[in-house]
Give the backbone structure.
Amino acid sequence: MGKKKNIKQKQLKRQETVASSKGFASQLAWPLAAVLITTICLSPLLKNGFTNWDDWYYVVNNALLRLPDWIGILTRPVVSNYHPLTVLSLAGNYAISGTEPWSYLLVNLLLHLANVVLVFWFVYLLSDKRRWVALLTALLFGIHPMHVESVAWISERKDVLYTLFFLLSMIANWKFLQTNRSIRYWACFLLFACSLLSKPAAIVFPLVLLLLDYWKHRPLTRRVVLEKIPFFLVAGLFAVITLKLQSVTAMTSLDLYPFWVRLFFASYAIIVYLAWFFVPHSLSAFHPFPPPDHLGWKIYLSPVLLLALIFLIWHFRKNRLVVFGSLFFLVNILLVLQLVPIGFTIVSERYTYVPYIGLAFLVAMIVTKYVSAKRLIPAAAGAVVVFSAFGFLTFKRTQVWKDSDSLWTDVINRYPNASLPRGERAQSNYSRAITMEPRQAEPLFRRVIDDCTVVINHEADNAKAKEKGDRSMYYMRGVAFSNLKQYENALADFNTCLSINPDDNEALYGRGTLLVNHYQKYAEALADFDRAIQINPQGRYYLNRSICHYKLGELSNAVADARIASQKGVTIPESYQSILNTAR
């Protein structure tokens, strides 16, 4: 009898184990479905390369990654941000693939997929284990076209990495609220610190904690306030550090756009981010500020729309879902509304990466709540249409980030007169053209001329911009003109470049080369090469000065300069070396 009882108990345990494993597999299938769909939509990005928009600073020319420099990674800011964990992760990629982009893009994608799973888990807990709510939210997060920038742009590693820790910290906090175990609290704090060390945007996290308390129906007691003090102190410290770093290079002056105009910008940004959540259109990696004397009707109208939005939220103030979802969006978008002037864009798509979780959760909860059995088929059909459209747009947007030329061409198609994308595309095409054969380079040089001309004309009335920015535009255009045999235009651009900065050794070299090869003004060219060598003694400068000396009959000087050029790694043309040998 006892043996039969034991056998029955073992069979029951086996059945429970099988049921449990099936249940786990069933639970796992939901987030894996979101991961699979997201992977398909973003897969083209794995074929992309670096762009010249910050990738050079973060990876290609970042000396911190080489050894790596551990002390430098932990102590030095990169591109006006202190985010050592982000730089550390890039150093790991550098150890794997050097300056080959595939590993950086793969890790970005894997981090994003991990975030999709974490969004599912977080919303699953938040919604009292409603799997459809979690799935819809995770899918919206995973394949929303506005999120392509955060994943496909290598320099935005900080976005996907800080969000990973941000989500883990929110989940740890929710577990703390459920269990009241101190280990959960400190896990939340540690993960919050890691999020801050990945991107300063995490400084809003203490406000998110208050929102989670609100969603949990937790009253604001003395204990609750004390719990948040360490989070606010650390957030305040990182806020001070970030302001100090970005005030040097990243912040723009209030002189151009006074604070009252910034309030209009903030209103406009909120309305645009909200509208693009539902209808992501006119997407671009760069959305420039409007001219100071012509802000446009959309910006002037935006405060009215914002007031209507505030009234709507106030109307539903007793609806905890509406308040929580709306405030989660607003709190996480707060730092990038241009009230504090940072960067060169009025809105940026990457800034929606975390904020859209709140809107996605709000929409998913409403949809699943009000879709009855009778409306299930139309609702499912509508969801398929929306997700198919979003997935298609995302698939296409990943290809925009293929390289610098495709990126900036996409921006220029949207904003043809914007200076920054024109200048960046000019730099990209110039860098490629100077390494090509003349015939192959000709179309690129023509595009360089077009782009530089737009920048120069746009900045013609801005003396400060001319001093700092147009120098490179004049120089690149001068080189392009020279290669296209438009020598008068080239000489004029080199002269203008040197009027902006008389010690520009590249412009001196360019003008000197032009004076030698086309104008045969060897004495004037010699003066340019002398000055260029004093500033930056490069081998190619010595070679061209050697030619000047030879043309002026100064053979010993010509031979000496040719020898120095050779020592500096410059290959002396055989025909010229033969002439020098014969002359001696």
